[in-house]
Amino acid sequence: MAEQDNGVTTGNEPLPNGADTLPQVGLISQYVKDLSFENPNAPAIYQSQQAPEINVQFDIGAQQVAEDVHEVTLKVEIRAESAGTVAFLVELSYAGLFGLRNVPLDAVQPFLLGEGPRLLFPFARRVVADAIRDGGFPPLLLEPVDFNGLYLQQAAAREQQGDTGTVGNA
């Protein structure tokens, strides 16, 4: 129902002047922002028979770059060591430009820090696997990550810390 009995429009119907008020989100572009692969102990590392220990770290950042356009950057850092010797280091910053129009303010940050990285991850995963393979190692296929769940966990932790601080000050 586009109108209520009093003639007022409800919800997200288009306005009479043709303006679109529906929330819209789109991926404009995605790209490698920075990529580094280091193999500091070649060629000796290839003679190691021990499987490397692999440490993977993620960092997510978002910034507004234009009206209705935000850049989300997914940073992946991987360090592989075998018998205390660095096998390889990978640092990737993979970014995407997202267009957001008519999105409620309380939904922007969850999208940019949860859903945005989820959309970028498969492509970043491929770049990492290819870089490691091109470095002479078996490709590393990163396990899927629940970025939305991580965002919700961190938001709940921040809220709890805020509540704890409020209680302590009361």
TrEMBL record:
Its main location: cytoplasm. The keyword Chaperone applies. One of its GO terms (molecular function) is unfolded protein binding. Keywords: Chaperone, Cytoplasm, Protein transport, Translocation, Transport. Coiled coil: none annotated. InterPro entries: SecB, SecB-like_sf. It holds the Pfam family SecB. It is found in: Cytoplasm. It comes from the Bacteria. One of its GO terms (cellular component) is cytoplasm. GO terms for biological process: protein folding; protein tetramerization; protein transport. SUPFAM superfamilies: SecB-like. One of the proteins required for the normal export of preproteins out of the cell cytoplasm. It is a molecular chaperone that binds to a subset of precursor proteins, maintaining them in a translocation-competent state. It also specifically binds to its receptor SecA. Homotetramer, a dimer of dimers. One homotetramer interacts with 1 SecA dimer. Belongs to the SecB family. This is Protein-export protein SecB. The gene is secB.
